[in-house]
Task: inverse folding
């Protein structure tokens, strides 16, 4: 399919007027109409309803408009990433991450970047969100994957993923055979949780979810790493609540269960400094955007 047809369709769909769209594209109306008709014939779907006075998007046209915009945006990012790769950019990047981000999309981001920029050296450091925020301000890391972020000068960030909360129970727990668990059923349980002082936003998210349903966790043990939390649950020290991505950890003697109640979203952010000219960091951000765009299209 000719990319120009997508651009023509987007212009008409946004203007809902062929003449105005033609002016915007610096062409005349008849060939624009022909291109839209050719596009509809090519995909076998009517995208626009035309009358003498008005132009409307069909339901299929509304869907195609969003898809066409995403296709062009992803193409633009892919071109930028390829152009950067062709420049032979080299250098060194220090990338920090919370341990719960060590799987999933972050793996895809790193893999894609390594394939396009094998000459750039990467140093990975596991840090809490609070440690990453300070490291970004100090300039000791270039980019971080973290669970919370406070807006700051020269720091840009974007949401990478949104997850739900899930329960972690010992394998022999009476509730472990259920398909889902109510947070209220955990009211009298001992809890193993992430400490407040190392991630107030994430800790408050869990405590707020519990208190919303009348549950006030009895925290008997704290641990920084999610994998450690899961291991402590396996040792029967208590139950826990973690982001859903933690269920990818391979660990026997525990079960991961969704909640019956709707949980708040747990965000994973990428944050990086914007002051200074750092070609390797720019390349990483562009490469990351390509992966994030691809993942969102698959959702």
Result:
């Amino acid at each position: 399919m000719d990319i120009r047809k997508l651009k023509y369709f987007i212009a008409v769909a946004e203007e809902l007027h062929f003449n105005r769209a033609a002016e915007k594209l610096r062409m005349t109306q008849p060939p624009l109409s022909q291109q839209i008709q050719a596009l509809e014939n090519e995909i076998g779907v009517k995208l626009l309803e035309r009358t003498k006075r008005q132009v409307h998007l069909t339901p299929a046209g509304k869907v195609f408009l969003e898809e066409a915009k995403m296709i062009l945006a992803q193409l633009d990012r892919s071109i930028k990433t390829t152009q950067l790769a062709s420049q032979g950019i080299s250098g060194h990047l220090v990338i920090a991450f919370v341990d719960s981000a060590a799987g999933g999309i972050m793996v895809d981001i790193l893999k894609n970047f390594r394939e396009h920029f094998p000459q750039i050296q990467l140093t990975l450091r596991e840090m809490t969100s609070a440690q990453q925020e300070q490291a970004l301000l100090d300039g000791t890391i270039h980019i971080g994957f973290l669970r919370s972020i406070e807006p700051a000068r020269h720091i840009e960030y974007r949401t990478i993923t949104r997850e739900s909360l899930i329960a972690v129970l010992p394998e022999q727990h009476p509730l472990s055979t259920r398909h889902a668990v109510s947070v209220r059923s955990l009211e009298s349980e001992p809890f193993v949780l992430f400490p407040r002082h190392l991630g107030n936003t994430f800790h408050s998210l869990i405590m707020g979810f519990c208190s919303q349903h009348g549950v006030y966790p009895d925290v008997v043990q704290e641990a920084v790493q999610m994998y450690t939390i899961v291991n402590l649950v396996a040792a029967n020290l208590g139950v826990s609540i973690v982001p859903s991505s933690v269920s990818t950890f391979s660990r026997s003697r525990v079960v991961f269960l969704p909640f019956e109640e709707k949980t708040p979203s747990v965000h994973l952010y990428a944050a990086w400094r914007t002051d200074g000219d750092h070609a390797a960091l720019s390349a990483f951000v562009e490469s990351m955007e390509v992966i994030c765009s691809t993942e969102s299209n698959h959702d």
Remarks:
- The two ends are 24 Å apart (CA to CA).
